[in-house]
Structure formats: C-alpha cells, structure tokens
Amino acid sequence: MATVRIPKQKVILCGDYGVGKSSLFRRFTNNTFVTDTDRKSTLGLDHIDRDYTVGDKQIKLQLWDTGGMERVASVTSSYYKFAEGAILVFAMDNAASFHSLSQHLLDIVTYAENAKIFICGNKSDLAEREPQVSDAEVEAFCEQCHSLISATYKTSCKTSDGVEEMFRDISRILVDANRSKMELQALEQHSFKIDSAAEADTNEESSQCIC
Amino acid sequence: MNEEYDAIVLGTGLKECILSGMLSVSGKKVLHIDRNKYYGGESASITPLEELFQRFNVESPGEKYGRGRDWNVDLIPKFLMANGQLVKLLIHTGVTRYLEFKSIEGSYVYKGGKIAKVPVDQKEALASDLMGMFEKRRFRNFLVYVQDFKEDDPKTWKDFDPSKSNMQALYDKFGLDKNTQDFTGHALALFRDDEYLNEPAANTIRRIKLYSDSLARYGKSPYLYPMYGLGELPQGFARLSAIYGGTYMLDKPIDEIVLGEGGKVVGVRSGDEVAKCKQIYCDPSYVPDRVRKKGKVIRCICILDHPVANTKDALSTQIIIPQKQVGRKSDIYVSLVSYTHQVAAKGWFVGMVSTTVESDQPENEIKPGLDLLEPIAQKFITISDYLEPIDNGIDSQIFISESYDATTHFETTCLDVLDIFKRGTGEDFDFSKIKHELGDEDQ
C-alpha cells in the first residue's frame, strides 16, 4: 500500500423509527434541521463522508443512514457489514425507544461484531424539563452490556447541541482503536469494490481495496 | 399498506430486488413485500449454520463446524462475470458501494475423469494439457480470431459470416476437434447444452469475449464472488430501492392478488388490508396458477474441510463438467467458496454441485461432481422445479420472473430481469448511461 490514503471508517446509525437518525445524518451532511420529517431531503442519499483530524492523524468518517427500512421491515443485515462504528440512537423524550436499544444492540453484535458501539440520546432539547430517560438508566444499561459501549452522548439535532462534539469524539475513539488494527490488516489479502473507473486496471495487486 | 402504488413487488429474491431498485430509481412508487421474515427468498445466504441444518431437518452439528454465525451458505450457487451484465447493473445503480468482492481463484474444466485449467489466452492454450500439439496450434489460431473479431468490422470476419453461418461451421473452419469444441462451448462460452452449434456463430463469439474480457479485469478467473455470500446482492438492491423511497414489508403473507376489469391487476390483499397498484412484479411462488414447470434443477450443498484436489489449493474454484464427458445433455457445475469469503468458519469450505435434472434418479446424475469434492463432511440436496410464466404479463400487468437455472453465473438472471423491465415499463434499460459519478463519489 504505497499511496497515503485517509483511512475510511464506516459508521452506521441504528435505533427505532423516529428517534432522529436522519436528523443526525442531515446535521452531519449539511448542518441543517427540518422539523417535519421530510424524507425527500435525504432521498437517494445513503452515506456521506467527512474528514476529521485527530492529533496528527486524519480520518474519514463515513456515516450511513438506514433509508427508513426499519419503519415497517427490518434493516438488511448487509447494512451492518464492514461497519467500524455504530451509533445507537434513542429519543430522550421517548422511553420506549430507549428500551428497544437492546434489540438493536443484538443486531450490531451479530452482524458487525467488531464495531465500536456508541449511545446517543437525541432530542435533549425536548427532554430538558421532564426527561423520560434518566442518566442513571443509561448508565445502568451500559453496565449491563459490560464493556460493549465505548461512549455515550446527548445531542439535539434541533439546536445542534452536542452533535459535532459527538462526531469528533467518535473519530478520536476510532483512530485510537484502529492504530494497531490497520497495521495488521495491511498484511492480509483484501477484497475490493467494483469500480467503473478502475476498469481494465491490470494492476497485479487488484485484490486491494480500490474503492 | 392501504395506499396506492405504481408497482408492488412480491418476494425479495435477487431478480425482484433488482427490479424494485430499478423502478424506485426511475421515480416509481414501490411497495416491496416478502412473506418471509428475512430478505432474499431463494437467493438468501443462510446464517447461522444451525439454520441450514434445521432447514434440511438434519440434527444440529454442535461445535463440529466452528461458530455457526461465521457461516453464510447460499442456496443457489452462482458467480458474477467480472465484465458481465450484473456487474454493469451494480455499477449503474451504485449498489457496488455496498459490497466487496474477491476473484474466484481458479476456473477448471473436466476431461476424462480429471480436471484441467480452462485455457483462455494463447500462452495458456499452448501450455494446456487438454489438447495435443497440433490441436493447440489450431486452438490458438481460433483464439486469435475471436480476439481480433469485431462485430461492426466485416474485415475481421475473414470470409466468414457470423450472423449466417453457425458455430459448427466456425469450429470446422479452424479444424477444432470434438474435445476442443466441448470445452470451448461449455467452459468458455458457458453454454449449458449443444444447441448453440446450430445457431449463428456471432453469439458464441460474444460469449467467449465476455469470458476473456472478464478475466482481463481482475485476473485469476473471470468470476467474482461477494464477501458474506450472494445474499448480500438482493439486500444491496433492496437498500437502493428503500433509499429512493421504496417501502419494505417483511413477514407479510399475500392472500390474494386482486384483479379488476379484463383481468388486469388492481392490488394485493393481505388479511383485510388491500394495497392498490397498477403493476405487480413477483417470483413464481406468489402466483402458482400463472406459471408452468419447464424442468427440474438439482443442487447439492457440501461442507468440506479441504480445497478441491489438483486446483493448487485454491480457496475458491469453478469446475465445469461438459455434458458429453459424462454422457449427458446438460453440463454439471461445481463451485467452491470458503472462509476467505466470510461464508464459512475458519478452515472450512462450501462446495456446490448443480445441474438440470435429466432422469428420475437425479442424485446419481451429480455423482461425477460430488466425486471431485470428496471427502464431504455433510451434504444437503434440493431438487426444485424450474418454473416459467405462462404469459408475458402485458394483459394482466403481472410480471413474473423465471426460477433460477442451473448455470453458475448471473448472465441469464440479468437477461430475465432486463426483459421483465422492458415488458413492464415499455423501455429498454440503457447500460450506456452508466453513472460514472457513483464510482467517483467515494474518492
């Protein structure tokens, strides 16, 4: 691997329908917010890259949204594949969305067993007066999951509070986690993505990732 | 569910998912339903391994085969031709970004009880032990002819009209013997039987070119295989459809296809809910009274702890047993994938033998294939009907896909999808509009 490339990390959003996954995605994408879930604004968009600098390292965070599949069906298992990070999102004004996190967590450990897992309590602005999910409950949940949860965050997509801080922190954790892993991976034979641009590229090491 | 849609797609097999994706991308409002709890129907990859054993009513293997969820076992074995239609569809639709692939390491053909590497270029032709000295030279000349052949340039045809003369005539022109014809037609052009010999040569030349162009793309073999199994393919197209507004419902039984005036479809009913639609796209299992049986396919899934002998320990292989070698009318296909594709636990392999059924003892028919894979730790055999729709669906607006055939690649799958798309929308799917920016956006 002679070329210097910014390592790309796939991070997926998981959680119940309506907790604000697409709002987080939209904040990440162009830092906007729409009150009514207007699906058209993300139609056709399913992941977006942004670069972060952590110390002397650069990292490309690639955030993936579910595309609304969880509304009536389940998200495909392929959504989880190759994910390095997963953000479990619940709405702080909706206790049910918190209680179903364990189900989503199970999906993540099944299909993306190496992913770092984060918890994000969204809609913190709505929960200021009467939070439906207390900090103690979140803490207790993390304890139950042993060391599976890497970090927890509180965000408000409406006010943008905590959103950028969360993505920055996740980048930091992924960079730390990957230092040793990437060196290891470089030794293994890689699979690759099909890419029209790479057509007829008779590069002998075509087994490398050419995405 | 109680809404109106442009199209309702029933079943989440690969063909239906590709259609759903193509329709959503072109702006249609799509509802996609499957009666199963999982995506993929017949094109799913079964995980964990215990699930596969359960499916075949075999007692759970316990710890013998490593961790169950490291397994993703395909029910229908197929590879992608690197330069074939499915890869073009994947690129066109951007679904390629959801998947990662590996090249299949070896492509072999069976001759006289042994297997030999499929020779595709001049160098390999001369080194191959499939042919004698003089035959090698004749085969090399044939390959050079095919390589230089351009359909729009009659000068490259060299006094041979490929649209009028048949393939047998072209073989005779180069003096190729029956053996060479056999592996050329079946292992390079990938025909299932010998009918192509009497058809215009142009089609066969095209198919040999597809093989060699595919080989040129990633080396080793012309075939690709997705990490985590073929079940990733329908899921990728399902995600595409969802991203473009398609609605998904799993675990939803379909009780009735509601017809209106003149037998034209107006919706589907599940329980007391009715979803209205102008068109239906589905696999044969949703419309048993609108399909007929064309034949049978036998497939045997084999769990192995070793690569195939004489393949240089390849972790993935395709072997074609041409019909004549074993006195049959249709070829037997053997494929092998392994832990390197994340479809088996470390150290394990999944072999598949499949063919079109010709007798009332199909299990005996695949024996030459199974012999190549021995010793086999566990076998699972399925025999399924090959179904095709009884009409083209124009009158009813119900467009039905054919069952998956015994071929080990997706070319016929794509032809069926493109044909259905054309019947349903009245338009050809234009490959020339491949969106290059999709490949670029990741940069």
From TrEMBL, chain A:
Pfam families: Ras (PF00071). The gene is LOC105224392. Belongs to the small GTPase superfamily. Rab family. SUPFAM superfamilies: P-loop containing nucleoside triphosphate hydrolases. It comes from the Eukaryota. InterPro entries: P-loop_NTPase, Rab_GTPases_membrane_traffic, Small_GTP-bd, Small_GTPase. This is Ras-related protein Rab-19.
TrEMBL record, chain B:
It is found in: Cytoplasm. One of its GO terms (biological process) is small GTPase-mediated signal transduction. Keywords: Cytoplasm, GTPase activation. Gene3D superfamilies: FAD/NAD(P)-binding domain, Guanine Nucleotide Dissociation Inhibitor, domain 1, Guanine Nucleotide Dissociation Inhibitor, domain 2. Its main location: cytoplasm. The keyword Amino-acid biosynthesis does not apply. GO terms for cellular component: cytoplasm. One of its GO terms (molecular function) is GTPase activator activity. It comes from the Eukaryota. Regulates the GDP/GTP exchange reaction of most RAB proteins by inhibiting the dissociation of GDP from them, and the subsequent binding of GTP. Belongs to the Rab GDI family. PANTHER family: RAB GDP DISSOCIATION INHIBITOR, RAB GDP-DISSOCIATION INHIBITOR. This is Rab GDP dissociation inhibitor. It comes from Bactrocera dorsalis.
